[in-house]
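Severity: low
Component: inverse-folding endpoint
Summary: output formatting inconsistent between runs
Steps to reproduce: submit the following structure tokens with default settings.
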């Protein structure tokens, strides 16, 4: 008996899928009995590196502009469905989980035709098109927020986060995190993260912030993405700023342990922000299905855990950061609010549901 997880494309799909696999292993399932299905993007490297079998299929999504490529999409989905169904039968898959994104549709179709139980999980407050469609074949649907737009029957379990966040302890991790980033023994730290690939908009905004900062001395730990897009080779930096730039952080729990305030996109990071109780300034992207990042950000802001700035308002980031960093009581209240809406055991809850269905 084995389990299949369909998760592909960006870190917002890939890492929650990996989190569920970690939970299955924690509950006694062998890594070799957990099969990942995806395309040719980051998933083809991430899953094998973690010791999981990976099956690659051709997947792509619907182009939102007029394109002849859309005419061939049904054939691509059909081929992917057939290949996934074959591997399901070969591996004796009992339960399949779709994490949203392009690969979810052929996985759901394959499960339905193979008699395999299918479940799906949505990471955003507004469901993407793939999960809306796949829900018709799902025995259970899991949501990251109390209400998921487009999935009225979704169970609120939270967005699965990696194992280090299940029992995150900031005070225990913080001294080691300071050494990891070579920071001073004390002093406020601003963390910046734009997702696994970085975000040009955030990189440009932080480049402006560090050049013109006029407040007290501030440490900035900036996860720029591998390409550091939008940051010049020789940026101007205020003498009141210490700016650490890292392309990618594998031990991401250390980033949150060190961040008194984080500037972030509002995708998969929102689950990590709440699981770690990290106050944030969220700058939602305008990409993806509908307004999903905006909806995510508004939920955290409405709960008192974050401040939301649109991309058009990002010029005011320096003033917002300065105001929050200077208000210890406000940051403390935001930390408590973030913890109050956290669901750090989401991966375990989803894994338990898969095991119960397979029993």
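Observed output (run 2 of 3):
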């Amino acid at each position: 008996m084995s389990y299949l997880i369909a998760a592909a494309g960006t870190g917002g799909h890939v890492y929650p899928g990996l989190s569920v696999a970690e939970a299955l292993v924690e509950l006694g399932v062998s890594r070799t009995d957990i099969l990942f299905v995806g395309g040719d993007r980051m998933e083809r490297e991430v899953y094998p590196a973690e010791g999981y079998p990976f099956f690659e299929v051709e997947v792509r999504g619907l182009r939102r502009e007029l394109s002849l490529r859309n005419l061939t999409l049904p054939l691509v989905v059909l081929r992917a469905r057939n290949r996934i169904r074959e591997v399901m039968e070969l591996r004796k898959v009992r339960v399949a989980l779709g994490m949203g994104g392009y690969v979810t549709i052929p996985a759901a179709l394959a499960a339905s035709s193979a008699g395999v139980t299918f479940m799906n999980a949505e990471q955003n407050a507004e469901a993407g098109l793939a999960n809306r469609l796949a829900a018709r074949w799902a025995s259970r649907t899991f949501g990251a927020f109390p209400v998921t737009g487009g999935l009225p029957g979704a169970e609120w379990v939270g967005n699965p986060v990696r194992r280090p966040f299940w029992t995150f302890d900031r005070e225990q991790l913080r001294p080691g995190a300071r050494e990891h980033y070579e920071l001073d023994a004390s002093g406020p730290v601003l963390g910046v993260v734009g997702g696994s690939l970085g975000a040009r908009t955030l990189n440009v905004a932080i480049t402006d912030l560090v050049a013109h900062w006029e407040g007290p001395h501030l440490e900035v730990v900036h996860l720029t993405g591998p390409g550091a897009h939008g940051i010049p080779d020789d940026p101007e930096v205020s003498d009141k700023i210490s700016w650490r730039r890292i392309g990618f952080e594998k031990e991401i729990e250390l980033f949150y342990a060190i961040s008194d305030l984080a500037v972030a996109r509002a995708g998969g990071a929102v689950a990590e922000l709440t699981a770690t109780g990290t106050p944030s300034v969220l700058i939602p992207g305008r990409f993806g299905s509908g307004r999903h990042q905006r909806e995510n950000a508004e939920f955290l802001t409405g709960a008192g855990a974050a401040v939301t700035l649109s991309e058009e308002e990002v010029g005011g980031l320096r003033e917002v950061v300065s105001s929050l960093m200077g208000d210890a009581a406000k940051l403390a209240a935001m930390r408590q609010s973030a913890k109050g809406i956290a669901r750090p055991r989401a991966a375990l809850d989803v894994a338990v549901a898969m095991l119960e269905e397979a029993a």
